[in-house]
Amino acid sequence: MGLPTYGTMAVDWEERVRFDRLREERLARISGLLAESSMGALLCFDMTNIRYITATHIGTWAQDKLNRFCLLPQGEPPIMWDFGSAARHHQLYNPWLSDGRSRAGISTLRGAMSPESGRAEDVANKIRTELAQRGLENEPVGVDAIEPAVLFALQKAGLEIVDCQQLMQQARVIKTRDEISLLNQACAMVDAAYEELYRAMRPGMRENECVGLVNKVLYDMGSEFVEGVNAISGERCNPHPHVYTDRALRPGDPAYFDILHSFMGYRTCYYRTFAVASGSRALVDAYKRCRYYLDAAIALIKPGASTGEVVSVWPKAQEFGFPDEEAAFALQFGHGVGLSIWEKPIFSRLVSLEHPEEIREGMVFALETFWPASDGWSAARIEEQLVVTANGCEVITRFPAEDLVIAGKPYYTVGGSLPLEREVTSERNTVLDHGALEAAPANGRPAGDRGATLAMGG
Predict the structure, then answer these.
(1) Are strands 364-372 and 333-336 parallel, antiparallel or unpaired?
(2) What confidence tens digit (pLDDT) does each residue in 296-309 have?
(3) Which of 66, 56, 144 lies closest to 101 in space, CA to CA?
(4) What is the pLDDT of residue 445?
(5) Concatenated DSSP letters for 377-411?
(6) How far is Cα 47 from Cα 112, in angstroms, rounded to an integer?
(7) pTM
(8) Which one, 11, 149, 161, 265, has least CB within 10 Å?
(9) Is residue 150 classed as helix, strand or coil in its secondary structure?
(10) Where are the domains positioned within the chain?
């Protein structure tokens, strides 16, 4: 079979993503694991698990409400309960939920409906009835995420409730060919968003404007959901706050971004660091160290390696200013990416050294590293998303990151353009000539010899 081709549309003249195959292979995988387990059925409220099992989706506004649910009994196709109009839509347009398996049903809206309304008991009765019809009412029922009232109602109805999160994670950890194609396309869209961001960044542009630009690019390209855009600049870079503000970019600022969006449900987690107009020596050094730790980890990725081996090449928390691994969690980090941005496997010195997981062909995950600069306030952050292949891995995040990229137009003087590597405080970039009573720009080595990539936006 040849290499897959990518695009936001399906076409008749190339095989791209085959959504029928995607639906069938996902359902077959979780059904097979369920058959091998001790559970009689899975009851899922997590929308990503519901999508994996039923191939239904009603928009991300419902992502955090736990009001839709599906039941996957042993040896049978799933049953879906949804908002009334959504259930009708599934009946009309989702033939894989035929034979009355798309139904109206709703839980408590995270407690917004009063207990007296009996919604929790209604959910429990629906589930017990289906299980009893199949002789499964005495078998354990695996649940992923659930409202307490619904949990108590299920238990009161005589059902044994167990955790199915690990089984769902086990199903989702190896991606099908179509899942990999969708993840690759999602990354390609972020490549484009970074290109536009790189060209637009300039002093005075605010972090929230950067977020707005990224959102527009992605939605214009067909993104289903921009889950978040981290936009961190200047003195906010260290420590990493994980949230954007209205701070305006300034000359010499570090600025790093994480772009998380979904295409047909499949996510990205994709950091890049820039310097605005110029980068300091401290930032250049931090970027090189950050890139080193990332590349050292990527070099170890292959089937049969372990997450413990990978995190062993990352620095201990104390080496970059944190008291322990919990305090530094997610700065040197790796995580599976699929229908959600954090899936198995997890790479962290907090858990992976003592509890390593095997890396397997078909996994898709992101590796991200961080390094604080010696100036005490700037920092570098880089992340690559990759697919584990038979012999190693393929990186699918392609916006240039092998060296620090300078965004914004260069500054010109009568003597030419100012160096791209320069200290942020302007008086540190001149040399005094007391005889001539002049302060002239410091020459130094060319920026290209000092580590900053000569790449200007605009």
Answers:
(1) antiparallel
(2) 999 999 999 999 99
(3) 56
(4) 40
(5) S-EEEEEEEEEE-SSSEEE---S--SSEEEESPPP
(6) 19
(7) 0.93
(8) 11
(9) helix
(10) 19-172, 177-407
